Amino acid sequence: SLLKDGSEIIPFNRSGEKPVIAAVEREEDHLDQVKKLVGNWLNKGHETIAVICRSAKESKAVYEKLKDNLDVRLMID
Predict the structure, then answer these.
(1) CA 49 to mean position of chain CA atoms
(2) Mean local confidence (pLDDT), 42-65
(3) CA-based torsion, 52, 75, 56, 69: positive or negative
């Protein structure tokens, strides 16, 4: 499983393209890859896009890097 405790996930049906798992070799390339992917989806007309990180700490760091360039919200719970 890609996720810890993945066996506890309850699947559901959704329409649209499958989610993308983007992996980068260098951390410095991470933000550029996220911006590129989000930009492509916005250009295709998507209005709501989720960037899911491995931890709350990583989510906060990504949010801080994106907030000046994109209309983003941080959702941690």
Answers:
(1) 7
(2) 89
(3) positive
